[in-house]
Amino acid sequence: MHLDNEEEEYRMTLSRFESMLKTNKVLFFDSEEFESIILHYLDSGKLTLAKKALKLGQEQHPNSTSLKLVEVELLIFQNKLEAADKLLDQIEEIYPTNEEVYIQRSTVYSKKGNHLDAIESLKKALKLTEDLADVYSLLGMEYLLVDEIELAKDSFIQCLENDEEDQSALYNVIYCFDFLSENNEAIDFLTAYIDRKPYSEIAWHQLGRQYFALKNYKKAVWAFEYATLIDDQFLGAYLEKGKSLEKLKKYKEAIENYVVTLELDDPTSYVLLRIGSCYEDLNNFPQAMEYYKRAVHEDPSLDKGWLSLTDLSIKEEKYDKALMYLQKAINIDEFNDKYWLRYAVLNKTLLDFKEAEKGYKKAAELGSHIMEHWIGWADTLYVLGDYEEAINKLLQVMDFEADNADILYRLSVLFFTIENYDKGSEYLEIALTKNFEKREIIKTYFPIQWESPFVQNTIRKFTKQ
């Protein structure tokens, strides 16, 4: 009731002031009323009205320290930092024990990038203020700006000890724990906080996040469950709970939680994608396809959505559709080597070896050096009849995999193919030495060469040794 009266008085003060401006009548307001009027306009970005209120306020209360400090805020808002500094000097000379002077000076220092000076100024304010929570919060932010994360964490903890309702400080202290990779310490801190404030949905949510980071998904679900029980509109908790349930392979329950987020707010492509993934894990491909399509409809630039459609189409052996979806993903992120590798493999499946070779080449240009894909590239070049280039690719990858039998057997086949029988026999003997069982590679992938006398003679000669 008391707060309602204050709010009503505040509205009446603003109404009286604006009425005064319209009628040009001069009405009296005390300095606190002027202060609230100026800060209201400042918060609303109405600089002209804030200046007008300050001018009138100082005319009626020329010796008001609070209005001088509001003037400092106005100067800082306008980025007139030197003027703010000079005014603070004047105020400090008269009222050296006013904590607001040091708080505002810390803001000036911070805006100038002098964060260490801002910290020292806030330390002075701490000795003078009764509102410790606000000053500790400001101090924590300054420590963050100079990467003193441990000190920032301590400051935010002090802030919460003086005001347990400060949710920003709660988020900030957990940010510090996260930054320092102190998940267990964060759990201890949150558990103690929840003991004091068991109905803090924010604390339960953050506790769930810590358990998720430690891959303790059962505990994460437990914590997120409490957050949603306290606040059944807590969208973020339902989302995180869904992710945790996915990790536990409880896909139906995960879907239920994701669906709640769709009911609480407009659908997001991320949530639609997660639901699609759950249905895919449940082998319900039609439903998975529907949600993947909804995801890309919601956000056509979501390359992961197009990729999910690609992979699901491959599972269903609908390769032409898969290629169409994959092209959409590539158009969005043409510098993703993984997409080009998929492009190569998919075109290979469709027996379009020229396009497959294009995919392998593009992936390599983008930095992909996965051995199996370079082997696939060489196999594609072999099919295209570009034997010399296929040999070059295999020799390049041998710099990293000198003893790889898959490469050695292929090199032997390629050298036999270009009628370099000495090299072919040399590489085949090395391959047989490294891994005799893998000679089946030739039989499986290169049946014509398998039947050649050069291959058979080399194998016979090797087995007689």
TrEMBL record:
The record's annotation in SUPFAM superfamilies points to: TPR-like
Keyword match Ribosomal protein: no
Q: Which UniProt keywords apply?
A: TPR repeat
- Domain of life, per the record? Bacteria
Q: Does the keyword Metal-binding apply?
A: no
Please name the InterPro entries in this protein's record.
TPR-like_helical_dom_sf, TPR_rpt
Q: Where are the TPR repeats?
A: 99-132, 133-166, 201-234, 269-302, 303-336
What's the protein called, per UniProt?
A: Tetratricopeptide repeat protein
Query: What organism is this sequence from?
Result: Myroides albus
Q: What is the lineage of its organism?
A: Bacteria, Pseudomonadati, Bacteroidota, Flavobacteriia, Flavobacteriales
